[in-house]
Design brief:
By secondary structure, the protein is mostly helical. It is built from six helices and no strands. The longest helix has 18 residues. The radius of gyration is 14 Å and the shape is globular. The termini are far apart. The relative contact order is 0.11.
Length: 103
């Protein structure tokens, strides 16, 4: 059983699990299916805005696909969410990627 199939099976039992959905999105990125990965990341962050790791990966995906302005917005949203959650390491990673893109 491949990883995507396996993750989808796990999600049947826990459809709201952000960790599993995030892992699924990363698998789609590995396959080069950025559209599906983007949809999953956006869904995660709409339903669970405190799932900090998805901000970075969504923004990186947008950056890679040339949607720079939207990537900047997601980095900013991620930095704010990380700050509110007290996630200093995540905040630093998001800020570093943001600064690399904007300066």
């Amino acid at each position: 059983m491949d990883r995507i199939t396996q993750l989808k099976e796990f999600l049947k039992a826990s459809p709201g699990d952000s960790f599993l959905r995030h892992a699924l999105a990363l698998e789609y990125i590995k396959l080069g299916d950025d559209n599906t990965a983007r949809s999953i990341f956006e869904e995660i962050l709409t339903q669970d805005p405190g799932y900090i790791g998805s901000y970075y990966h969504l923004a990186k995906l947008l950056e890679r696909t040339g949607d720079t302005e939207l990537a900047i917005e997601w980095y900013e949203k991620g930095m704010e969410a990380a700050k509110q959650a007290g996630e200093k390491h995540a905040y630093g990673e998001l800020r570093s990627a943001y600064e690399e893109l904007t300066f």
